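Severity: low
Component: inverse-folding endpoint
Summary: output formatting inconsistent between runs
Steps to reproduce: submit the following structure tokens with default settings.
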């Protein structure tokens, strides 16, 4: 019998796939393999928060190793190491590894509810997360996080400390004005306020800063692309044709400013009657899948039109926190893993060297 070595372990694991990306763990360079006699030790390091799939992957690795010839003992661990995008950042966001913009082409598609649940799901999956409410005219995150009425502390008359809620670090214009204060501002004032929220908040160490963008493709979006090193964008839409038309504009906008679109989240995809259980597609069906296919970007997940999502967000305890084991929360966590995994791929692609071949 041939001696057990690293190559034989690699061969045994060559078709084992990442549970989210469905790509070879070896091709993702995610496996560290050690062999000592008949003992194989394998560490899988994933570039996204993976609490929800860690046990599944550890079991798959261990089962594969224990049926490999020559292995009497298998030690397996799965870790998450979220890479920094490497973008040059200003002082206040210097320790923020990745910035994700959650956007929509139009209002009313549930973007803010999706943003807060995405941020919370990333946190539950094991990441350090911040949430910036960039809707200057209509901030909603203070209420959704259950911390309305609080004000951030100021350090050295220079930086604001974010409000902490449900494990997130958050800031919003809603913390700086009352609920009755209308923001009657022109575009330049709104852009200036947005930049201050981003750059004058002491975010500290974060794996992800999720930015809840206002709807549309206006001043804030332009300011974001020009002044903030966004790592990737997520587009929220409903299946109906009008929403899809506007979602396309959002995708095109991010493409024009060279921000990778990580994927599409389809909200209000289906409704199940609470009385009879009948399921119907009130806003149409398959819209998110079609737009994702058209722009060659993933459909990160589909969420139902569910009364509990609205009630829990309005009550200051979004679904991921209010009911962690519900089907809706599991979908949000799945979306969070897919978003983090797509960002990992985008960072890997950006870090790949370009090879130039010429006759010189």
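Observed output (run 2 of 3):
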């Amino acid at each position: 019998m041939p001696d057990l070595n690293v190559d034989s372990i690699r061969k045994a694991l060559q078709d084992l796939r990442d549970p989210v990306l469905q790509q070879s763990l070896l091709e993702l360079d995610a496996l560290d393999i050690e062999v000592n006699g008949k003992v194989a030790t394998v560490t899988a390091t994933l570039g996204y928060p993976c609490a929800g799939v860690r046990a599944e992957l550890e079991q798959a690795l261990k089962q594969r190793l224990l049926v490999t010839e020559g292995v009497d003992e298998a030690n397996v661990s799965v870790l998450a190491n979220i890479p920094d995008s490497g973008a040059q950042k200003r002082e206040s966001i210097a320790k923020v590894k990745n910035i994700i913009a959650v956007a929509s082409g139009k209002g009313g598609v549930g973007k803010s509810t999706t943003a807060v649940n995405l941020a919370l799901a990333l946190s539950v999956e094991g990441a350090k997360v911040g949430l910036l409410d960039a809707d200057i005219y209509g901030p909603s995150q203070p209420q959704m996080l259950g911390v309305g009425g609080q004000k951030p502390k100021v350090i050295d008359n220079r930086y604001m400390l974010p409000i902490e809620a449900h494990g997130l670090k958050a800031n919003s214009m809603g913390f700086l004005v009352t609920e009755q204060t209308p923001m009657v501002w022109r575009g330049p004032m709104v852009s200036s306020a947005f930049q201050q929220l981003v750059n004058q908040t002491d975010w500290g160490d974060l794996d992800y800063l999720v930015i809840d963008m206002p709807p549309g493709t206006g001043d804030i979006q332009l300011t974001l692309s020009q002044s903030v090193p966004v790592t990737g964008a997520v587009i929220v839409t409903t299946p109906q044709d009008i929403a899809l038309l506007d979602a396309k504009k959002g995708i095109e906008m991010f493409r024009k400013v060279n921000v990778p679109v990580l994927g599409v989240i389809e909200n209000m995809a289906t409704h199940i009657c609470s009385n009879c259980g009948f399921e119907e597609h009130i806003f149409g069906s398959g819209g998110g899948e079609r737009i994702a296919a058209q722009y060659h970007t993933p459909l990160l997940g589909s969420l139902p039109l569910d009364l509990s999502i609205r009630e829990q967000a309005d009550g200051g305890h979004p679904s991921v926190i209010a009911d962690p084991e519900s089907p809706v929360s599991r979908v949000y966590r799945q979306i969070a893993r897919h978003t983090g995994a797509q960002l990992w791929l985008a960072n890997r692609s950006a870090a790949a060297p370009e090879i130039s071949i010429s006759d010189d």
